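Person: I keep going back and forth on a fold encoding question. Show me how you would write down a chain together with its backbone fold. Please set it down just below, with no commentary around it:
Helper:
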Amino acid sequence: MLNNLFNKNFSIFYILILLIFCYGCTPVSQQYFERNFPDKEYKTLLNEKKVQKSNEDNNLDTNHFMTKSTMQKFIKVNITDFSKENSLSIIPNGDYEIFVNKKLKGELINGSEYKLGIYAGQRVVIAKQKVYDEVIYLRGKTGNEYMQINDKKYRNNFYIGIKKNKFCVINEVELENYLYGVIGKEINYSWNIESIKAQAVVARTFSLANLGKFKKDGFDLCDTTASQVYGGMEAEHGKIIEAVDSTKNEVIAYDKKLAQAFYHSSCGGHTENAENVWGEPLKYLRGISCNYCKNSPNFEWKTTLTFSDITKACQEKGYKVGNITKIKVRRFSKSGRVRELTLFWDESSATIKGTEFRAL
């Protein structure tokens, strides 16, 4: 048995809200948190992130309308809820146009329900009549539209295509509208408005710094914890909209570049140095002691794994190991987390990083 191998809570995320909070009363905080960027400087930061067209096979080409201005304003988010669906219901709120390869093919009538299906495993069918061989792009005429897809509502525009005989829906959403649907999924809107504002700045920074993270798949971010949890309009709230609007254009920067604004729900009492997680040292991501999350239900946790569980997980990840019979921790970080451990089986052994073990 392996009881609580990682000693303390082995969190790999940092919370830059804490950097703002913990260092906010000292001049040094200005190098972490810069507010109210002039438009020119803000646009310079945005221009560092270019969404490039992917030429890989079997990926959605969602670059039909990617111009310099839209790259700065919109984020393409993969809505994973629909990735297992072979039929969809869509109801536009507002006037939408249908484009295929930049060519206008028709319009959707405001308030009308349309059934989408899949024909021959690769074609999108609308209302059992119109069949499209390519990805369809649904673009609102004014920018204020939203679409109900099945039982959920999302703002702005959409790419709809087929991947592995299932629908792939990508919401091309304006940045601030995207944040409306993120904040309430990451923190509670009942919190103090200043906390929500801080989260808005962090989420905006994370979004911009990670544009194109999944470009080979045709989108920027996904709607899960692999990026930021995004719930569309159902996740919106008046306080969240107020916090996002009042911090517009505010980002976290270091040396005039967008910071890596990782965040998490609980650090277990101590955050971690960047190089111990991602391998690259970052001056603004240094581990510090933290007492702010001690009341979190996830502050301490325990899990039990058998050697059989660990052997199976290693083999599934491609590690060439036999039946593991012993584990020895080699190094801890200053925070108390495992940095390196050795796995033993038969007459052999292998040493791996703690982060690699956690990813099994």
Q: What stands out?
A: Residues 193-209 form the longest helix (17 residues). The radius of gyration is 23 Å. The chain has eight helices and 20 strands.
